[in-house]
């Protein structure tokens, strides 16, 4: 039985999904290397929405030392975190 | 009394009660979270864990801080072993006076009693307690673990020892107090609640959209969020209650909650915590 988050996903797919989510929430165009916090697009409270979204959408859990802003600063950084966590989970 | 291993008792497991719990737990102080609503207590653990993660993400708390130091209960008698009591129940006099009367009946004299009231004068609340000299006000902002400056309110009967205890606790929590005197709304809410109400009236009359109002405050005045996004963070039900408290105690009609605000509360649009207020918070809150 497969869940939406179980299939193999690629970095491009993760980046496109994240860009769609962030553009919809912030109503502003983004690029994958834009500093989301420095640009003022993401507040501390939106950061939590982003984590909840990332965990729910990609089936990962962000804990401990991974809970730092640098992992969420750009779409590229979030993508690297997601791919890393999914890789780890699959051993 | 200042034993770091004794818990701090928090009365009320709402937005502010859980936020203050996160601040205490992140600083290594155990918490006894007390509420009359079992269902709300049942949600408090997950709520506190989520906020602890946010505080860690923002670099405000060390990694590994967890909600394990928190006990939830409906038993007010559990305040007995607390080093301090922090009242954070609904912004209504009857709720706050009942909670304070019953909590202070169960603690030793000399135990610090704090009210996190938005607007009710500290001396008025102290009148419902067994030892008014032990009572001070600390007005934490939401979320308390991200905004570390607080309004510290000295009532006319607050003892110097109680203020010192409050300052020591705030120092442990990494908070910077700004000491002010007593009165409806103190400083922040006497100004802010009026401004939120006026901003809502501006939207109601069609002069500007919520986006436009907040864009002016953030862009022109350097305000972090603008009055209406701030209202959504506070919770519109709390804003309406605070405005009523201010109206009743000052007679200033500027504090009468405007229709748009009351309509939003009536249909359950209570701000960020309900997913919608003046703005939409699709998905997570």
How many distinct beta strands of chain A?
A: 0
Bulk shape of chain B: globular
Strand residue percentage of chain B = 5-15%
Helix and strand content put the structural class of chain B at alpha/beta
**Structural shape of chain A:** globular
Tell me the distance between the termini of chain A: 20 Å
* Helical content band of chain B: 40-55%
List the total number of helices of chain A.
Answer: 3
**Which strand order does the major sheet of chain B show?**
3-2-1-4-5-6-7-8
What class, by secondary structure content of chain A?
A: mainly alpha
Q: Major beta sheet of chain B, specifics?
A: 8 strands, mixed
Q: What would you say this structure looks like, in words?
A:
The complex is a heterodimer of chains A (91) and B (285). Chain A has 91 residues and is mainly alpha-helical. In chain A, 51% of the residues lie in helices and 0% in strands. Chain A contains 3 helices and no strands. In chain A, helix 1 (11-26) crosses helix 3 (75-89). The two termini of chain A are 20 Å apart. With 285 residues, chain B is α/β, with parallel strands linked by helices. In chain B, strands 3-2-1-4-5-6-7-8 form an 8-stranded mixed sheet, with helices on both faces. The longest helix of chain B has 20 residues, at 38-57. Chain B starts with 7 loop residues before the first strand and ends in a 19-residue tail after the last helix. The chains are: A mainly alpha (91), B alpha/beta (285). The A-B interface holds A 24-25, 43-45, 47-49, 51-53, 62-65, 67-69, 72 and B 50, 53-54, 56-59, 63-64, 143, 146, 225, 233, 272, 281-285.
């Amino acid at each position: 039985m497969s869940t939406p988050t179980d299939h193999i996903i690629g970095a491009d797919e993760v980046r496109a999904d994240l860009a769609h989510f962030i553009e919809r929430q912030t109503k502003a165009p983004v690029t994958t290397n834009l500093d989301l916090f420095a640009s003022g697009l993401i507040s501390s409270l939106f950061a939590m929405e982003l984590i909840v979204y990332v965990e729910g959408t990609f089936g990962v859990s962000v804990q401990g030392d991974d809970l730092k802003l640098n992992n969420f600063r750009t779409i590229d950084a979030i993508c690297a975190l997601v791919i890393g966590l999914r890789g780890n989970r699959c051993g | 009394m200042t034993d770091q291993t004794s818990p701090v008792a928090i009365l009320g497991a709402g937005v502010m009660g859980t936020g203050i719990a996160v601040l205490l737990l992140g600083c290594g102080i155990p918490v006894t979270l007390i509420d009359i609503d079992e269902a709300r207590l049942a949600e408090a653990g997950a709520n506190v864990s989520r906020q602890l993660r946010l505080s860690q993400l923002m670099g405000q708390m060390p990694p590994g801080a967890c909600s394990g130091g928190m006990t939830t209960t409906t038993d007010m008698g559990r305040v007995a072993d607390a080093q301090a009591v922090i009242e954070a129940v609904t912004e209504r006099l009857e709720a706050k006076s009942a909670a304070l009367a019953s909590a202070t009946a169960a603690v030793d004299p000399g135990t610090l009693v704090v009210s996190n009231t938005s607007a009710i004068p500290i001396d008025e609340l102290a009148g419902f307690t067994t030892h008014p000299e032990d009572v001070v006000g600390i007005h934490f902002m939401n979320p308390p673990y991200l905004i570390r400056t607080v309004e510290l309110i000295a009532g006319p009967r607050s003892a110097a020892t109680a203020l010192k205890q409050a300052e020591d606790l705030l120092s442990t929590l990494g908070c910077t107090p700004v000491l002010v005197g007593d009165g409806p709304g103190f400083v922040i809410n006497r100004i802010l609640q009026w401004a939120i109400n006026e901003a809502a009236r501006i939207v109601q009359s069609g002069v500007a959209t919520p986006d436009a109002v907040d864009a002016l405050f953030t862009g022109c005045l350097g305000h972090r969020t603008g009055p209406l996004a701030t209202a959504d963070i506070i919770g519109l039900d709390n804003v309406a209650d605070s405005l009523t408290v201010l109206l009743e105690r000052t007679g200033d009609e500027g504090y009468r909650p405007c229709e748009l605000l009351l309509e939003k509360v009536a249909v359950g649009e209570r701000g960020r915590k309900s997913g919608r207020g003046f703005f939409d918070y699709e998905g997570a809150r």
